[in-house]
Structures are given as structure tokens and as C-alpha cells.
Amino acid sequence: MKRKRGVVVIGLGNPILGDDAVGLVVASELKKRLVDVDVVELSASGLAVAEAMLGYRKAIIVDALVDEGAAPGKIMRLTLGDLRTSPRRFIGFHDIDILTSIELVKTIEGESFPEEVVVFGITIQEPGCYQEGLSEGVKEAVPKCVELVEEECRR
Amino acid sequence: MRKVVTIQPITRLEGHGKISIFLDEDGNVKDAYYQVVEFRGFERFCIGRPVEEMPIITPRICGVCPWAHHMASAKAVDAVYGAEIPETAKKLREMAYNIYFVHDHSAVFYALSAPDFVVGPDAPRAERNILGLIGRVGLETGKRVINARMVATRLLERLAGRAIIPACAVPGGVSKPLTEEDRKEVEEGAKKLVEFGQFTLKVLEDAVLKNQKYVDLIMGDVYRHETYYMGLVDGKGLVNYYDGRVRVVDPRGNVYAEFHPKEYLDHIAEHVEPWTYLKFPYLKGLGWKGIVDGEGSGVYRVGPLARLNVADGFATPLAQEAYEKFKETLGKPAHATLGYHWARVIEILNAAERALELSRDPDVTGKDFRVPLTNVPSEGVGIVEAARGTLIHHYRTDGDGILTDVNLIVATTHNNAGICMSVKKVSQQLIRAGKISDGLLNMIEMAFRAYDPCLACGTHALPGQMPLDVCVYDASGRLVAEIRRP
């Protein structure tokens, strides 16, 4: 078995879909701060996300999250187990979903899949329009989320 | 008697993967519509930007087919500047694009199409997925799929900087030449992809074509529509994903029209329905007759099945051999909607073969890979075949190359009427006199999965399964049943 690298942080989002870009914004901040951690900005879903985690001991995903009723800008730390049982819906469709992808890649590439996957979700209002830039509430959550991910990397 | 116009259900139509079925007085299906969310404002987002940014911006429309937008956009910008790109650039673009085709088609086949057949259309939903598929065909197959995708991803990274949002095609050519070392890696990788294509074809043949029940399902009337078809063909009339003329065949297989991309507006018009933002393109010469098939209707379909129907064959030997068998079984044109899956698998093999062929072409390591843009920009059209079908980008700019008008027609929009027809036909079979049979959801899912509708979004997916919501309304517009898959 190949020796695994340390931690990978994967920021997900679409840079031109308003608040959906928040995962990318957090990742881009982290890139400037983290030295020993690989930070990936990814505009992808399903399989591609699961594949990006291969070869690391721990993977941290940062993504926008639609949680009906929650105010925008709330940060939640979730595990894969939480996602499985949660009624919360991360936006997007098509491709196979991330949990199935992870299970698949884990089944096939078991040894090189991370032992730990942590997800930081930042609540947003579901976007309906192409636009650049984050809304105020979501923008305010970015520095806090950056700190939380930094702490998580040290854990 | 007072006539009641019911608008209320109409306003409820927009939604994620929402299907609305309307019954007549006798409880039989009168109309059925399939709807997806469209994120709006893309055109407005682009207006006022320099046109050369488009090949970088448009792949963000959709995280599923970024390569198709990248290529169509680059071709449209070339046309805006009246630039004829060098042979080396053309071949490098096409080589990368064919690798992307293998990458995309294989995910669709193994993750979305194959479970229906290999695990079985009647299997419980929890098993009808790629994990259930691996449970049936063995871990080895799963390994081959992941490995082939990894090979394709690595090659795309080499050629385009990034595998997912590419940055290789630039106005006038490509961003960098290909070194001999990289060429060798592409050749080695493409050989593996050809083997993977052959393997995938065998998976399909063993699991589907050797099972009479599935062959009957594919050939049956439920999923059959006699429509026109549209797709790109090369100078010899063969399938090409990157470049060529647009050919349209009629339901009997005769060539109805063949035109240069820049003439598309002479042939395609768009119908607007009040209940959806998604437009319905149709053939101008025939006119809009509603969401119906047949020789008199302007409805046409695009995508793998359409490409095999419009072209005279494939330019590569293994795909051509597979195509002969396809033609023999399904006829030509093949109207069986589930034939999309088979066509997709043949295209995996063709795209891999074409990438290998191009990797061995001395032109790909040429040094003449980009021309300067010297003409005053004005207007241009770029058309490619996206994995899911014909993709049109049309831009207009002012004299400084600032965008004043943008029109995109994506594959799922071309197929909009086809998808609605398939949903309607399935519903008609499974809803009789107000009684809804079990399995309606499964059968509807199978219908639209053939088209692999792409949902105009660049967002990712956690947990990301497309929710499906089927609403049945009676003749007075009252919601009488709702079946949901979260």
C-alpha cells in the first residue's frame, strides 16, 4: 500500500452562480494560509469529487448548503453519516450523488480512500440567477469558516 | 356553461425534475410535461464582456459538459474574428474533445444507464444504482471504470491544464503545443481507452442484447417516437463530434437538410410555452405542430441515437463494426429511444479510437498552433456535438469585441419535446381510467434517462440525487396524485 498524503481540502461551487461559489471562496482563502495541506477548488460533482479525495488520510469538503428555514451564512460541520440521514439538500443534480460516489470509490479503491471525511456546509438561499459575488450574510461567514477548516486540518 | 381556465397548476410547473400529467374526463392521459430548473440570466451575465472570455465563462454553465461549451465557444469566437485556425490546433482540440467524450459517456453508461438493465428495471431502487451494478458484474468491472476515468482525467489535465473546466482552446487555436513526451502519453492512454471501449461494448452485449426481455423492451412501442434527427457529420458524412456540417434526416432516414453552422437560424426556430422557461426548438420548414412526432411535425431529436441516424457510419473500424450490428437490430433510422444507450456505448469506442488515431498524427506536434486575430470582430456561430447532442453558440459583438448578443441552444433544449413525448407515452400506458399502475416512476425515469438530460447548472451535488416529483391532475386541474422520489 502506498503511503497516504496528509489532508486535502476541497472547495466546491460554481463561481458564477452567486452564493453557490462560497466553497470556492473559502478554498481560495485557505490556499494563501495553509502550507502543508493541498487545497483544491473544484466545480464538479459526484464521481469527480470522490476521486479527488484518493490518496489522502483525511478529506475536508467545503460547500454551499440549502437548508430550508435556516438563515444564510450558518456554518455546519457534518460527517458523511450526517449527510446520509439529513433532510438537508446540497444543491445540484445530475451525475451520481456524492454519497454513492464515495461508497463506490471506497469499495473499489478502499485502501487509498481517506479514513476521515468532514464536510463544512455554509447555508445559502437557493440561487436562481447567474451572477458574481456573494451576498452579505454569506460573505460574513467566510472568515469564520476559514478558521474552522484550519482548526479541522490540525485535528 | 361557464368555461373555467385553470392557471393554478400551470404556475406550479417549475421545479426540480417535475413531471406534470393531465388527465381527460375519462381519466386517461391527455398531456404530460417534464420540467427542469433553468438558472436564468446567463445571456445578461455575458453581455458587455469581451467575447474572448467566453470559452472560459461558458464551461461554468454546467459542471457536466464543460468541454462541450468550451469547444463550441472557442469555435464561435474564431468565427466572430473570421479566424481560420491551424490544422495542428484543430486536431489538438479534437483529440482532447474525444477523450472528454469517453470520460463523460462512460460515467453516464455505468452510473446512470446500465443499472436499469444489468440490475433490472424491476429491481428495488436501492439496488438500481452503480453499487448494485458492481454487485452483479463484479468489482473488477468497477475497477476498470474508475481506472479508465483516471486515465482520461490525467490526459485531459495534460492537454488542458484542468480536466473539469478546461483551458486549452483559445481564440485562434490552442494555448500550447503538444510535446513529444505528452503525445506518447496520450497515445498510451488512448490505447487503454480503446480497450475499455471494447470491454464496455461487451458488457452491454452480454447484459442487454443477449437478454430477449430487454431487447423486447428496447424495441417495443412504449419508448418509440418517429421523429426527425439532427447531428454533425464530417466531409464524408460520418459521425464527428468536433466539427462538420449539420445534417437533419426525416423519420424515414432521408436527408431533409444539411447546412453550415452559420445558417442554423434558417433551419431552426424556437417555440415558447407559457408553462416553462425552456424553449422548444423545431424545424422551421415544417413548423411547430405541437409536441408530436411524425413526418409533418417539426420536432427533432439530438444526441447519440440521432448522430447514428444522421450519419452514414463511423470513420473508425471497431465503432463501424458495432454500428453495423446496431443498424441490423434497430433499423435505420432507429426510433427506439432506449437505443440511445447502445449508441452511447458505440460512441465511447469511436471516441477512443479517434483520440488514438489523432495521437499518431504527425500534425499534433506541429509548432503552428495559434493564429493572431487580426480582423474586426462581428458575429459568429460555433457548433459541436456535446455528449448529449448538438450544441449551438452564437455571439454578436461591437467592433471592439464586446458582446452585444448571445444565443445558446443546448442539447437538452433540442430534446425537450422528445423528452415530453416519451414521458407522455409511458404515462398513457400506465394510467388508464384514472388508475395509476405501479412502476410508473421507474418507467418514466427510464424514458428520460435515455436522453441523459443535462440540467443547465454548474453546481455540484450533495447528496445530489435529482428529486423526481410526478403530479397527476384531473380534467378540472385538481391534483389527484403525487408520487415523489426524494
TrEMBL record, chain A:
<dbReference type="GO" id="GO:0008047">
    <property type="term" value="F:enzyme activator activity"/>
</dbReference>
<dbReference type="GO" id="GO:0016485">
    <property type="term" value="P:protein processing"/>
</dbReference>
<dbReference type="Pfam" id="PF01750">
    <property type="entry name" value="HycI"/>
</dbReference>
<comment type="similarity">
    <text>Belongs to the peptidase A31 family.</text>
</comment>
<keyword id="KW-0378">Hydrolase</keyword>
<keyword id="KW-0064">Aspartyl protease</keyword>
<protein>
    <recommendedName>
        <fullName>Hydrogenase maturation protease</fullName>
    </recommendedName>
</protein>
<dbReference type="GO" id="GO:0004190">
    <property type="term" value="F:aspartic-type endopeptidase activity"/>
</dbReference>
<dbReference type="InterPro" id="IPR023430">
    <property type="entry name" value="Pept_HybD-like_dom_sf"/>
</dbReference>
<dbReference type="InterPro" id="IPR000671">
    <property type="entry name" value="Peptidase_A31"/>
</dbReference>
<keyword id="KW-0645">Protease</keyword>
UniProtKB/TrEMBL annotation, chain B:
<feature type="binding site">
    <location>
        <position position="65"/>
    </location>
    <ligand>
        <name>Ni(2+)</name>
    </ligand>
</feature>
<dbReference type="InterPro" id="IPR018194">
    <property type="entry name" value="Ni-dep_hyd_lsu_Ni_BS"/>
</dbReference>
<keyword id="KW-0479">Metal-binding</keyword>
<dbReference type="InterPro" id="IPR029014">
    <property type="entry name" value="NiFe-Hase_large"/>
</dbReference>
<keyword id="KW-0533">Nickel</keyword>
<dbReference type="Pfam" id="PF00374">
    <property type="entry name" value="NiFeSe_Hases"/>
</dbReference>
<protein>
    <submittedName>
        <fullName>Ni/Fe hydrogenase subunit alpha</fullName>
    </submittedName>
</protein>
<comment type="similarity">
    <text>Belongs to the [NiFe]/[NiFeSe] hydrogenase large subunit family.</text>
</comment>
<feature type="binding site">
    <location>
        <position position="408"/>
    </location>
    <ligand>
        <name>Mg(2+)</name>
    </ligand>
</feature>
<dbReference type="GO" id="GO:0016151">
    <property type="term" value="F:nickel cation binding"/>
</dbReference>
<feature type="binding site">
    <location>
        <position position="457"/>
    </location>
    <ligand>
        <name>Fe cation</name>
    </ligand>
</feature>
<feature type="binding site">
    <location>
        <position position="454"/>
    </location>
    <ligand>
        <name>Ni(2+)</name>
    </ligand>
</feature>
<feature type="binding site">
    <location>
        <position position="43"/>
    </location>
    <ligand>
        <name>Mg(2+)</name>
    </ligand>
</feature>
<feature type="binding site">
    <location>
        <position position="65"/>
    </location>
    <ligand>
        <name>Fe cation</name>
    </ligand>
</feature>
<keyword id="KW-0460">Magnesium</keyword>
<keyword id="KW-0408">Iron</keyword>
<feature type="binding site">
    <location>
        <position position="460"/>
    </location>
    <ligand>
        <name>Mg(2+)</name>
    </ligand>
</feature>
<keyword id="KW-0560">Oxidoreductase</keyword>
<dbReference type="InterPro" id="IPR001501">
    <property type="entry name" value="Ni-dep_hyd_lsu"/>
</dbReference>
<feature type="binding site">
    <location>
        <position position="62"/>
    </location>
    <ligand>
        <name>Mg(2+)</name>
    </ligand>
</feature>
<dbReference type="GO" id="GO:0008901">
    <property type="term" value="F:ferredoxin hydrogenase activity"/>
</dbReference>
